[in-house]
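Supplementary Note 2. Why include the ligand at all?

Several targets in our set were suspected to adopt different conformations when bound, so apo predictions alone were not considered sufficient. For every target with a known small-molecule partner we therefore ran a joint prediction. The input for zinc ion is given below.
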Amino acid sequence: MGVRATVGSSAPAVPGETATFELGVENTGDRTEDVGLALAGTAAAWGWITPATLSLAAGERAVARLTFKIPRAPHPPAGPLAVNVRLTTAGGMQDVPATVEVAPFVDVFASLGPRTTPGGRKGRQRLTVENRGNAGIRAGVEGVGEDVSVRVEPDRLELAPGASAEVRVTADAGRPRFRGATVTRPYEVVVRPDGGGRPGRAEGEVEVAPSGWVGRVTLLLLAVAAAGIGLSAFVGSSGDEPRDAVAATTPASDCPARDHLSPDANGTVRDGVRPSFDYSFLFVTKQGCQPVRFNPCQPVRYALNRRLAGDADVADLLAAIGKLAAATGMEFQRVADTDEDPRLVPRPRRQPDGTFAWPPIVIGWAHLGAGDALRGRNDQRASPDVVVGGGGRPEVVSDVIVTGNLILNLDAVTDTDTRTPVPHGFGTGVNWGRIMLHELAHVIGLGHVESRTSIMNEALTQQTLSSSEWGVGDLIGLRQLGRDGGCVTVPPVPGQGAPR
Ligand SMILES: [Zn+2]
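The joint prediction is reproduced in token form.
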């Protein structure tokens, strides 16, 4: 057979994406050949050659294209994948071996069952972890909860591609925060692959019945039964806050902001700051331990510039502010509408007595285009399919948030190809509710996170929260920014009495 083929090299084939190789075909014989080109063997399922035939004169050389689209699945595994290029001529058939390097990808799936554990005791659940990636992984398992201590056994896993394992999860909830009602305490179990890659996560919740002394006794028994560390922590605390005894994964009370600094804030990227998974703060105090916040002990005032807004826009915003108030325990007070530009930080206002005061947060709507008008501000820089929905930012003076501004883009679309406008409400997918919650949380100091079950995940289109409600991590961060964090002293407006 007077035909020779050579397969060129390519970068590793990334599963889910196409990888193309050049296939050089040469007629080394002395008469014209019609050469059929096809893939043979198992790899034939994931690739194709164009054109499928070449007509080559004697001595002629041509180039065909070999394209692979490896599935994002455990099979084929990462590493070299043998492929056969089959050449067919009138004179016979010949296989040319080649190798495609399949790039590894990490896809960890975790699911928890049952999701809700009933009533007032510690809940036992089973976490199923599946390695849906194409390479073996080692991963750490940990629980994150608000007032819930989550223990996992085992806390380390090693999984081949396609393999799954089970982890026993024990969630202990302390006393209910409010007496007289059954409350639900959410938590999240995170499976974090060594060496990076998106963690797998599953959400659970524990119902806690009302309790007085009985609940505390039960808790003490649980702490004794659980582990020595739980017991000593309980004894070490004053006894007034028994949830400390079991809340191993709740924020360190002395330094809650440690390891929770946002990698970006108000448009500035902080080199070397690793993103947090569950919650982050835009700014922290100079010691790095406390998040920078509004004073939650007085109403936070805001003014709307509603010149371009419809009733539905305002309704969404007021509902979002209500959800922010519920999550933080803070009071948000609407003051008279304003005509100030919501793209700018509002300036101090002169009071009737002649002194100056920090202005209310200015919130407004504008037509900023469906393109990248807001890029380079504090939001949505990354992928082309994100919604450029708005930008919210706090104004920080002396480690205290004194005011802020929030712009909402009436031209925002949920898909830049179909140019679908953003729907109203707080349902599934990207909507105004989701955008507003995200941006409002920025205004009070919350930053971006990696968890896709968080409103604070930067790529709103990638979030997996089924409705536009706060995720577990969001709630932990918001609580610390709110009343639970205690009061802060608002600094005076500098240069009192000096009008601009
Ligand atoms: Zn953002």
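The domain at 3-102 is CATH 2.60.40.10 (Immunoglobulin-like). The chain has three domains: 3-102, 108-246, 264-485. Comparable summaries for the other entries are listed in the accompanying table.
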